[in-house]
């Protein structure tokens, strides 16, 4: 029996990253539209023949699989927690994202070997990944497509960034003076490029963020073993922990609680690192003691701190180190005072 592939419609002419990504997600990571045939047209008669229409048509109706965002009345965002209007990428992700993530995870499990066993993703974690991939990746595509400045209060831009994904995909379009322009071929080249970036973004979350969360949750739950204040976390290994702190505090209703995180370094010593005010800030909730900061002479630093195996303290007070766990913990405790 011959397999029948679904028909996916979008517009022809210059393409942008939002519909390219939307088509990549549909054709590679949804069960219904996998390997779908993409037709690029501005003819309403052609649109009517498509099983799903993306970024064109002037209609947003999930029941009939029409996903355009250009109409004046369209003001939908990803959720009440996000204020940016969706592009076609955000629309497809909003409606198919959980399925897309599950299929991306299956692809990564089939193609990547890991040094640790990655635990099966439960429903709660799947929803966390769903939000995180939107926040970390797709939200910026929605914003750029809708002309939203990253820094709306900046009067004069100081430099241009033309290496973001939207700019890169724009350069896949044929230039105005090229002969024999094959626009559809360029579109599919862009689609494969976007797919590589989508996999990379998902790997960063699934193989970086997700397995790390398990260890940070463990450290959070056992934090009173370090200090009765509950403000110090001890990790058994060095791993990306910053975003987990903010997520866990939000879930537990303890926002702002954790001040320092301890973890082993590569030289068999221990680091003590301050937690920032928020995920995008360079300001610390609590810094290491002021009199220790930036002292280059180790013997002088030992004398000032009274810690015999202290190694360094950064000039800003955001990180320091000691040879032993006990003294790294002491650095954190003294800095809490």
**Strand percent estimate:** 5-15%
In spatial order, strands of the major sheet run 2-1-3-5-4
Summed over residues and divided by their number, the pLDDT gives a mean of 94
Count up the helices.
9
Helix and strand string, N-terminal first? EHEHEEEHHHHEHEEHEEH
Cα radius of gyration in angstroms: 25 Å
Note the gap between the termini. 74 Å
- Helix vs. strand class: alpha/beta
Low-pLDDT stretches are none
Helix content: 40-55%
Lay out the secondary structure:
Elements: E1 7-10, H1 17-29, E2 37-40, H2 44-47, E3 52-54, E4 60-61, E5 66-67, H3 88-111, H4 123-145, H5 165-170, H6 183-221, E6 232-234, H7 242-252, E7 260-264, E8 270-274, H8 298-305, E9 310-313, E10 319-322, H9 325-336
Parallel strand pairs: 1-2, 1-3, 3-5, 6-7
Antiparallel strand pairs: 4-5, 7-8, 8-10, 9-10
Helix pairs in contact: 1-3, 1-6, 3-4, 3-6, 4-6, 6-7
Pfam families: MYG1_exonuc
InterPro entries: MYG1_exonuclease
Family: Belongs to the MYG1 family.
